[in-house]
């Protein structure tokens, strides 16, 4: 059975297809602080893909990255919900 060459971005709710060699789509990668990106890349150099058997350090860096993305996107999502036509009485 052939393995897929892409997967969904690791950011919660992102549906972009990206190469298996990447963890995030470019938009999400750009919002991660450089030090955290570097930490993840240091672990990647050892040839561990996120779908295989990553080290605990790689896994923790990925979890930390998802948390950073969530914290940066939460206000935007909350604003979108607050401005929803269903809540504001506007037309859908």
Characterise this structure.
This protein has 92 residues and is mainly α. The termini are far apart. The chain contains 4 helices and 2 strands; from the N terminus they run E-E-H-H-H-H. The mean pLDDT is 82. It has a domain at 37-82. Strands 1-2 form a two-stranded antiparallel sheet. It has helices spanning 26-31, 34-44, 56-82, 85-88, and strands at residues 6-8, 17-19. Helix 2 (34-44) packs antiparallel against helix 3.
Topology of this protein?
Blueprint: E1 6-8, E2 17-19, H1 26-31, H2 34-44, H3 56-82, H4 85-88
Antiparallel strand pairs: 1-2
Keyword list:
mainly alpha; 92 residues; 2 strands
Outline:
Helix content is 52%, strand content 7%. It has 92 residues and is mostly helical.
């Amino acid at each position: 059975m052939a393995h897929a060459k892409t997967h969904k971005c690791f950011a919660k709710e992102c549906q972009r297809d990206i190469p298996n060699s990447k963890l995030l789509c470019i938009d999400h990668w750009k919002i991660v602080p450089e030090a955290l990106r570097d930490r993840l890349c240091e672990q990647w150099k050892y040839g561990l893909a996120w779908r295989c058997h990553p080290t605990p350090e790689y896994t923790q860096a990925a979890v930390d990255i998802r948390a950073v993305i969530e914290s940066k996107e939460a206000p935007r999502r909350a604003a979108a919900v607050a401005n929803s036509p269903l809540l504001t009485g506007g037309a859908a």
